[in-house]
Amino acid sequence: MEPISNLVKSTLPDYLSNLPIPSSFGGWFSLSFKDWLSLIPPTVVVAGIGYTGYLAFCPAARGNCSGKNSGLCNSQIKKSEAKVVDMIDVEDIADKAAFCRCWKTKNWPYCDGSHGEHNKLTGDNVGPVVVVKKKK
């Protein structure tokens, strides 16, 4: 615990107080190359913390969904309806049917393989629901 206490109370404040931060806007233009190099490590740390916060609090940054309503996954299917519900009789489908779960298909409610591109773009692993008729 002693090394952490020393780092927080002594080493870090000493390091930060020795950084060449100018007191005016014009002072930035008079910094030497060595001064600019010494500002790189703290800048990288601040940028990393900012980016991590951005990823933590912005769903679109994680690739969940896109657009102004980033909490929505359905961006195109039956948007005029309050809830998308489709009833399909088992007798009406072939021996096997694949149904979309990614909301990207152009052939709703059937899967057209659009999830492949969606998965590449977002890192998701969604695929279709496959319904198979039992053989009697």
Please describe the topology of this protein.
Layout: H1 2-17, H2 33-38, H3 40-57, E1 96-99, H4 115-122, E2 129-132
Antiparallel strand pairs: 1-2
What can you tell me about this protein's structure?
The termini are far apart. Residues 65-69 have low confidence and may be disordered. Helices cover 35% and strands 6% of the residues. It has helices at 2-17, 33-38, 40-57, 115-122; strands at residues 96-99, 129-132. The chain has 136 residues and is mostly helical. The protein has a two-stranded antiparallel ribbon. It is built from 4 helices and 2 strands.
What's the short version?
The chain has helices at residues 2-17, 33-38, 40-57, 115-122; strands at 96-99, 129-132. By secondary structure, it is mainly alpha-helical.
Main beta-sheet annotation: 2 strands, antiparallel
Strand order of the largest sheet: 1-2
Silhouette: elongated
* C-alpha termini separation: 71 Å
* SS strand fraction: 5-15%
Task: List low-confidence stretches.
Answer: 65-69
Overall SS class: mainly alpha
List how many beta strands DSSP finds.
2
Report the total helices: 4
Q: SSE string, helix = H, strand = E?
A: HHHEHE
Mean pLDDT over the residues: 84
Residues in helices, as a percent range: 25-40%
Q: Give Rg in angstroms.
A: 27 Å
Descriptive key words:
single chain; 2 strands; two-stranded antiparallel sheet; 136 residues; 4 helices; mainly alpha
